[in-house]
Amino acid sequence: MIKAEKTDPYIPLKARFMAWWEGVEPDAMVESDALQSAADGVVPLVAPEQAASDPSQIEVDVPVGPAPVWSEERIAFYRRLWGNDDQDDAIVPGGIDLPLRLVKPMALTNHMQMLDVGCGIGGAARAVAEHIGPRITGVVDHQELIDLGNELTAAARLQKQVSLELTDYSELDFGKSKYEGALVREIAYRQPDRLDFLRAVKNAIKPQGHIVLTDLVLATSDARDAKPIRRWLEKESAGAEPGVLADY
Known about the structure:
Blueprint: H1 13-22, H2 26-31, H3 35-39, H4 72-82, H5 97-103, E1 113-117, H6 123-131, E2 135-140, H7 143-155, E3 162-166, E4 179-185, H8 194-204, E5 205-214, H9 227-235
Parallel strand pairs: 1-2, 1-4, 2-3, 4-5
């Protein structure tokens, strides 16, 4: 898998601590030629009298308008969390190795087509196309993910095999009997009507086709009242209604 150039704003904890200690912005620590020396505690970047003394005078650029759900910072964090040095295309648990194992029982060939619902930045689609060979259509509901995914697909020279498309899951239309297989990962729990959503996926599959589904579910209906679950639903997955295992 080709490692695309990243605009990753992550600054190591050690550098951020030294920036706080010296009273400078973390970016200045990174850009300075003296970063390594400062991080090792050899020389200060600024004299104590130069440190900012009035926080109200610090100017910060604030973007106009609502922040995107998938900001560059969030994507970069998830790629660090679920990827590795040579496989940084993953923004969901399991990296790109898991979908390769999930898709294998479908017995897809390069003459077949696969639907990847909730494709993220297309890491799984590219991995499956490269290692197994089918033509893949990936769909996701955030333009930020599509834009980066298309860049990575072009960098990997897989445009003829992988197509990433923006979709509105609520329209419940993935085509009719078009694909030999579908991969649906951690997306059904966010759908208002899971049954209709899964029917739409089923309708997109040819007779005798395959669907591989992974999802986030509650062990029991009582689990919804647990504090960690409530906090997760309020913040990370607002509006989601994960089902109970027995429902599946």
